[in-house]
Q: What sequence folds into this?
């Protein structure tokens, strides 16, 4: 039994690698999605860091702090959008229905969609880091930058699950519209584009309720040594809620 189980794990690992490679190619074949989920966040960051990157933000230059806040927006623009829209497209084409009766578990396909978004998220963060360095506003050690990267990638899981939940319920165009309608206001109210201290007070009251804000603060804590436990608790709770929503959405989806 142990041998069979080990063999199954090897086979599932091989299938997962093939599925991830296919998902990576499908993202490259969709230039519009690549533009909005990868190039647009980097372009926003380049604009803002060139204007505000040199401003005094305490011990950490504003441009370095933006790696945590704009980095959160950049990672979520990939990990929230791509898996969710991909699920909606596959559902429209009947591909998930075929997977349900095939030897490839649907769960492997969904995991591949989330995993395939991560290299693009890394690319976004690397591009932002290079931009901050070129503007002279980067003041962080390689270890700190790696911690920010790790936090943002792991912290994107609940958002990817939420995107999948939306993808199981809506068509591709509608899913993209809904996810954008969630991401953009969340970015503003969470202080991802502008510090909350520069915005009206009610923005801060709303931010504390948003997991996007807590992910950004957790990433920022890797640079300034801020507290992390409350932010981790919120993100763990968000993951549980998003996983439940994704499971229910799949259960009642019309594949």
A:
């Amino acid at each position: 039994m142990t041998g069979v189980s080990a063999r199954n794990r090897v086979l599932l690992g091989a299938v997962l690698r093939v599925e991830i490679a296919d998902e990576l190619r499908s993202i490259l074949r969709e230039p519009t999605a690549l533009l909005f989920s990868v190039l647009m966040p980097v372009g926003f960051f380049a604009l803002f860091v060139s204007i505000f990157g040199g401003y005094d933000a305490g011990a950490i230059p504003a441009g370095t702090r933006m790696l945590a806040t704009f980095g959160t927006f950049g990672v979520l623009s990939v990990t929230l959008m791509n898996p969710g829209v991909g699920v909606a497209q596959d559902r429209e084409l009947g591909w998930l229905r075929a997977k349900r009766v095939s030897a490839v578990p649907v769960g492997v396909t969904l995991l591949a969609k989330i995993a395939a978004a991560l290299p693009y998220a890394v690319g976004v963060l690397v591009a932002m880091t290079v931009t901050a360095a070129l503007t002279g506003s980067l003041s962080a050690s390689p270890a700190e930058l790696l911690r920010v990267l790790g936090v943002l990638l792991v912290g994107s899981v609940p958002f990817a699950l939420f995107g999948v939940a939306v993808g199981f319920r809506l068509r591709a165009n509608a899913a993209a519209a809904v996810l954008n309608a969630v991401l953009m206001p969340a970015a503003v109210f969470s202080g991802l584009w502008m510090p909350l201290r520069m915005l009206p007070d009610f923005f801060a009251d709303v931010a504390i309720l948003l997991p996007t804000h807590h992910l950004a603060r957790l990433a920022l804590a890797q640079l300034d040594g801020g507290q992390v436990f409350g932010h981790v608790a919120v993100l763990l709770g968000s993951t549980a809620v998003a996983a439940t929503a994704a499971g229910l959405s799949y259960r009642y989806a019309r594949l």
About this structure: The CA atoms of residues 73 and 184 lie 9 Å apart. The two ends are 33 Å apart (CA to CA).
